[in-house]
Design goal:
Helices cover 35% and strands 31% of the residues. With 156 residues, it is of the alpha+beta class. It binds zinc ion (ZN).
């Protein structure tokens, strides 16, 4: 797993800081956050679980920016019908049924689905953000996208 990060200002290789989350450019001193926690993702997306329409739209938008290769989105125009996120061994799926969202988590090991469980939307979302954080911490591009969202709306 490569952990080199290129400065988005001058293109130099950046140096990781002590916590591994922030990289600093030795040349132009640009700082970039490359790794984040589940709490930060959840706060950054600022998703309202009670509003299924907004929830699906916002989640789809975020995932299509940072996790395209792991995400399948079905939509009818701007109306998001279902979202599937593959972060092995967990496959997350959510789809609309009228005004509700039905959320399932499937365990997949070596391409074989072991079990699928239907969970509440808040549990599903908690587990999803944890899986996204784990994945983002091995993928600088994904972490960068999520980091932008996190710092953009929370002001931290
Ligand atoms: Zn630089």
């Amino acid at each position: 797993m490569s952990s080199t990060v290129q400065c988005n200002n001058c293109g130099a290789m950046m140096t990781p800081q002590w916590d591994g989350r922030v990289y600093t450019c030795p040349f132009c001193k640009t700082q970039m956050q490359v790794a984040i926690g589940a709490d930060q993702i959840a706060a950054g997306m600022a998703i309202d679980l009670a509003n299924v329409e907004a929830f699906m739209t916002k989640l789809a938008t975020t995932l299509s920016q940072g996790f395209t290769e792991h995400t399948q989105i079905q939509s009818n125009g701007a109306h998001v019908l279902s979202i599937e996120i593959h972060l092995d061994p967990d496959h997350f799926h959510v789809h609309r049924e009228g005004q509700h969202a039905v959320a399932t988590i499937k365990k997949v090991v070596r391409g074989v689905a072991l079990r699928t469980k239907t969970v509440s939307l808040d549990l599903w979302y908690t587990q999803l953000t944890q899986a996204l954080a784990t994945h983002a911490n091995t993928n600088a591009r994904a972490a960068w996208v999520l980091g932008q969202i996190g710092t953009g709306s929370s002001g931290r």
